């Protein structure tokens, strides 16, 4: 499984529409509206790099209103849930 974050700049009057359209895409698990340099962050999960590339270039970037993007590919995930589970092995409640 390949996970990527697409950082997106969107036309101001299309942020909500773009977010809704992205959220409907099968490989997009979440879309966040954010403050800062980008308007939206889409979390994408694909079975391999080729499918990720297809989704980003042939589908995501063709959504009307996206003006610029930067895609980050994740190597490994770290989450509080996973870390707490690792460090509590052998501890009883």
In a few lines, what is going on in this structure?
With 93 residues, this protein is α+β, with helices and mostly antiparallel strands. It is built from 3 helices and 4 strands; from the N terminus they run βαββαβα. A hairpin with a 6-residue loop joins strand 2 and strand 3.
Descriptive keywords:
4-stranded antiparallel β-sheet, globular, alpha+beta, 93 residues
Reported for the largest beta sheet, the result is:
4 strands, antiparallel
The shape, in one word, is globular
The CATH topology name reads Alpha-Beta Plaits
Distance between the termini: 34 Å
Enumerate the strands of the largest sheet in spatial order, edge to edge or round the barrel: 2-3-1-4
Ranges with pLDDT <50 over ≥5 residues?
none
State the share of residues found in helices, binned by percent: 25-40%
Output the helix-strand order.
EHEEHEH
Gyration radius over CA: 16 Å
**Can you give the mean pLDDT?**
89
CATH architecture: 2-Layer Sandwich
The percentage of residues in β strands lies in: 25-35%
Count of all domains: 1
Please, could you describe this protein's structure?
With 93 residues, the protein is an alpha+beta fold. The chain has a single domain, classed as 2-Layer Sandwich (Alpha-Beta Plaits). The protein has three helices and four strands; from the N terminus they run E-H-E-E-H-E-H. The protein has helices spanning 15-23, 49-59, 80-87, and strands at residues 2-10, 28-33, 40-46, 66-73. Strands 2-3-1-4 form a four-stranded antiparallel sheet. It starts with a strand and ends in a 6-residue tail after the last helix.
């Amino acid at each position: 499984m390949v996970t990527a974050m697409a950082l997106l700049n969107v036309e101001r009057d299309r942020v909500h529409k773009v977010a809704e359209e992205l959220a409907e895409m099968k490989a997009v698990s979440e879309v966040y509206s954010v403050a800062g340099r980008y308007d939206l962050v889409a979390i994408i999960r694909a079975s391999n790099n080729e499918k990720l590339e297809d989704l980003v270039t042939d589908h995501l970037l063709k959504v009307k209103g996206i003006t610029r993007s930067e895609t980050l590919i994740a190597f490994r995930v770290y989450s509080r849930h996973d870390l707490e589970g690792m460090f509590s092995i052998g501890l009883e409640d």
